[in-house]
Structures are given as C-alpha cells and as structure tokens.
Amino acid sequence: MDHSINNTDRPPYGILAVLMVGAFIAFLNNTLLNIALPSIMTELDVDAPTVQWLTTGFMLVNGIMIPTTAFLIQKYSVRRLFITAMGLFTAGTIIASLAHVFPVLLIARMVQASGTAIMMPLLMNVMLTSFPLEKRGTAMGIFGLVLMFAPAIGPTLSGWIIEHYDWRMLFHFVTPFAALILLSGIFLLKDKKDKVELRLDFVSLLLSSAGFGGLLYGFSSAGSKGWDSPQVYGTLTIGAVSLLVFILRQLKQDRPMLNFRIFKFPMFALSSAISMVVTMAMFSGMLLTPIYVQTIRGISPLDAGLMMLPGAIVMALMSPITGRLFDKFGGRMLAIIGLSITVVTSYYFSRLTLETTYTQLIILYTVRMFGMSMVNMPVTTNGLNQLPARFYPHGTAMNNTLQQVSGAIGTALLVTVMSIRSETHAEELADSAIKNLTGQPTPAALAEMKQQIAMQAMLEGINDAFFVTVLIAGIALVLAFFIKRAKPAEDIIEATPSEKKIGNKLVEN
C-alpha cells in the first residue's frame, strides 16, 4: 500500500499522531454543536425540524461518502487523502464561523462532513496495517482513548462557550487547531503510493448514495414527520431498493467499490451485527437522557453536560485498558461483561422518576458508559482481525457505514417509541384524573393538572423507550456468546486478480 506505513516492526507513530489529532478535532467539532442548536434556532430564526438538518445533513454526507473510502484508500496515498479531508474540514469550519444565514451554515456543515467521512476509515486502515495482530488491541485502545476524549469534553466545553459567547465561537475555537493540523499533515506526511489502476464506478456511487442516503434520511425524518409520511416511507423504499441493486452489482464486479463478500467471514459478520445493535442502544443514552434531564427536570445545558462528563471520561480512560485486555483474553469475555452491565443499567434507566437525584443519574450514566467501553472497540477489532489485508479498506468502510445507518435507525425507533407511548400514557393519565375529580377545578388548577400529566406521560414514554434498549442490548449479549478469537483467514474468499495485486502491495510494502 504505502511506503513507510506497513512496517509492523516499527509502526509510523508520527503519521498516526497527525491522523489521530486530526480525527480528534473533527470529532470534537461534532459534539460541540449539539448544545448550540437552540441558540442557532433563535439567532437565525429557524424552527426545530429545520435546525435539525445541521445534524441530519452531516449524517447524510457521511453515509454517502464513507462507502467510497474503500476505493479512495486503495487508490490514493495517506498523505493525499489526509490533506484533502483536513482541507475540506477546515474550509467548512471557516465558512460556518462566518455564516449569517442558515443555508450557508448548512452548506458549511456538509463540507465539514465530507472531510470527516474520509478521516475515520483512513485512520483505522492505517492502524490495522501498522500493527501486528497481537498488538492491535492495545493500539486500537490508544486510538479509542484519543477519540473518546472528544465526546468527554465536548458537551461541557460547548455549554460553557454558549453561556459566555456567541455560538460562532464554537467554530472560531476549532479553526486555528484545524489549520495547524492541516499544515502539519502537509509538511510531516511523506508517504508515497505506487500507481494503482482503479476506476470509480459512477453507477455504483449513484446507487450507494441513493441507498445509504435514502435509508439515513428516511429513518432520521421518521421521528419528526411520522412513519406514515410519504417523505419517510418513500425515501426508505427508494433507499432499500437502491441498496439491494447496489449490493447485487458489487457481488458481480471484479473490482467492487464496497466488497460485500467480507460478510462471508463469520467473525466480521458477527462483529458488525453486534456493533449495529450496540450503536442503537448507545444512542438511547445520548438521545433520551438529555431530554429527560433538560425538558422534564429543568436542568441547564451546562449541568446536563457536566452530568455526562464522568461517563465519557471513564469510557475514554477504559479504552487503552480494554485494548490490553483484548490482546490478552480476546473479545468474547469483554463483550459479555460489558453488555451485561449495559443491560442492567439500561433497565434502571427505564425506571426513572421525577424524584431521581442528580447524583443517581451521574452514577447510572457513568456505569452504563463503563459497560459500553468494553464492547465496541474489542468487538470491532476482533471482526477486522479475521479479514485478509486486502479487505481492510472494505472492512473499515463497511463498519463506519453500518454505524451511521444503525445510529439513524436507533434514533428513529426510540423517538417513535417515546412519542407513541407518551401519547398513550397521556390518555390513560387524563382518564384517571377525570375519574378522580371532585367538583369543578379552577382554570389555573386545570392548566397545572394538564402540565403535570404531560410531564408524567413524557417520563413514562422515555422509560418505555429505555426498556426497548434493554431488549436491544439483550440481543447483543446473546450474540456475544458466539464470539471467537479471530485470526486472518485467507481461504474463505477467492480473491479477484486485482484484489490479489492490491493485497500483495499491502503486505510487501
């Protein structure tokens, strides 16, 4: 692949450091923006469904771009891809910091997303080709430590900045760091790549964009528009049909843009299934907890961020420890323990009340994140370990794409459960309140009763949504018992001549 990259005796720590810092800045930017959405709504005069496009649009671009990274990583050098990715991200950040109308801000976010989409698969591919199998868990653990600190400090830092400055300061804060990383990549990355005769299949690109983009948009819109909206089921149908045609086309091609044959490797297929399920469960904490804390309990954004900070820090600090444990014991034990903790804590989250204390929430959320820290990285690494080197770009691209899709599905599912169950509970509580009424209540008492019913109904809806995550995490726990320590398997799939050529370059260089 790349000279000076694939030397397992001495991994390219300088290159990895530049890539990791770049990925950290990109991830930090994503976590900074969530708390700023209400401020952006007020200043740019847009409603909630519109401002949500800053997240949905970002996700859509990721879903469209990530499947192409398998082709890009095989075609171009690490230096060229990193400079392109960081250049796009920096340009998007600068445009966003100057935006005074919503369309400009949305375009800037999509430009950022096009850079971020390349960054993660590129970094994971370099990690896989730089470290031998027996040290890969530790290396991925360090990689996780760096990236997990972004969501650890993001919400709290964002809350503080929003309370003291304009929301544009979030982008002003990131810009100099992004520019510095871009310059570092230009001067420090020196790897070269032998010319590889690969051409992008534009029909596959179109089908992939319509497939993954349609699914992401459909599931992302379901929560706000409802499943009976033509916009939702129409895009889901287009996405599903396009994705099916895309998969069939890839299976027939000698040089597929994204190789679905990697699912013939059992541990990779199993790890993908577990990772998707865990991502769906993880989104429950990220989505439902802030709604409960801020909407029902009236806790400020800064205090909500501080509440989640210990859990994110624990997850980050556990990453290198989990990596070492993975190298020693494999992924099965870690996944079983981690998912057991996730199931138990998710159950306790499904029993929240209006009297649950702030301290209880911190402890529960922290323990839940501790459990999840034992799952994602070990399971993903174990699955990728079974792939021959020639399939690394496809494996990393596939994992990142499936995480985007499962995140959108998880969010749509949980929002739907919360909304439907809240309405049901509201009707039940209203009927019960009417039966227990004595005399004619005053308008003020009636308004207060309606507000209490609405809050209690939303709380019960959140609890029901959390209970769904108990079932989801339970499925992942059952699957975890089938995990076996993976080793590279060369004989499951017969490589095409072009894949053999690329695979040989990966090993030789």
From TrEMBL:
<feature type="transmembrane region" description="Helical">
    <location>
        <begin position="231"/>
        <end position="248"/>
    </location>
</feature>
<comment type="similarity">
    <text>Belongs to the major facilitator superfamily. EmrB family.</text>
</comment>
<keyword id="KW-0812">Transmembrane</keyword>
<keyword id="KW-1133">Transmembrane helix</keyword>
<feature type="transmembrane region" description="Helical">
    <location>
        <begin position="85"/>
        <end position="107"/>
    </location>
</feature>
<dbReference type="InterPro" id="IPR020846">
    <property type="entry name" value="MFS_dom"/>
</dbReference>
<feature type="transmembrane region" description="Helical">
    <location>
        <begin position="268"/>
        <end position="293"/>
    </location>
</feature>
<dbReference type="GO" id="GO:0005886">
    <property type="term" value="C:plasma membrane"/>
</dbReference>
<keyword id="KW-0813">Transport</keyword>
<feature type="transmembrane region" description="Helical">
    <location>
        <begin position="200"/>
        <end position="219"/>
    </location>
</feature>
<feature type="transmembrane region" description="Helical">
    <location>
        <begin position="113"/>
        <end position="133"/>
    </location>
</feature>
<dbReference type="GO" id="GO:0022857">
    <property type="term" value="F:transmembrane transporter activity"/>
</dbReference>
<feature type="transmembrane region" description="Helical">
    <location>
        <begin position="465"/>
        <end position="483"/>
    </location>
</feature>
<feature type="domain" description="Major facilitator superfamily (MFS) profile">
    <location>
        <begin position="15"/>
        <end position="488"/>
    </location>
</feature>
<dbReference type="InterPro" id="IPR036259">
    <property type="entry name" value="MFS_trans_sf"/>
</dbReference>
<keyword id="KW-0472">Membrane</keyword>
<feature type="transmembrane region" description="Helical">
    <location>
        <begin position="333"/>
        <end position="350"/>
    </location>
</feature>
<feature type="transmembrane region" description="Helical">
    <location>
        <begin position="12"/>
        <end position="33"/>
    </location>
</feature>
<dbReference type="InterPro" id="IPR004638">
    <property type="entry name" value="EmrB-like"/>
</dbReference>
<feature type="transmembrane region" description="Helical">
    <location>
        <begin position="305"/>
        <end position="326"/>
    </location>
</feature>
<dbReference type="Pfam" id="PF07690">
    <property type="entry name" value="MFS_1"/>
</dbReference>
<dbReference type="InterPro" id="IPR011701">
    <property type="entry name" value="MFS"/>
</dbReference>
<keyword id="KW-1003">Cell membrane</keyword>
<feature type="transmembrane region" description="Helical">
    <location>
        <begin position="168"/>
        <end position="188"/>
    </location>
</feature>
<feature type="transmembrane region" description="Helical">
    <location>
        <begin position="53"/>
        <end position="73"/>
    </location>
</feature>
<protein>
    <submittedName>
        <fullName>MFS transporter</fullName>
    </submittedName>
</protein>
<feature type="transmembrane region" description="Helical">
    <location>
        <begin position="140"/>
        <end position="162"/>
    </location>
</feature>
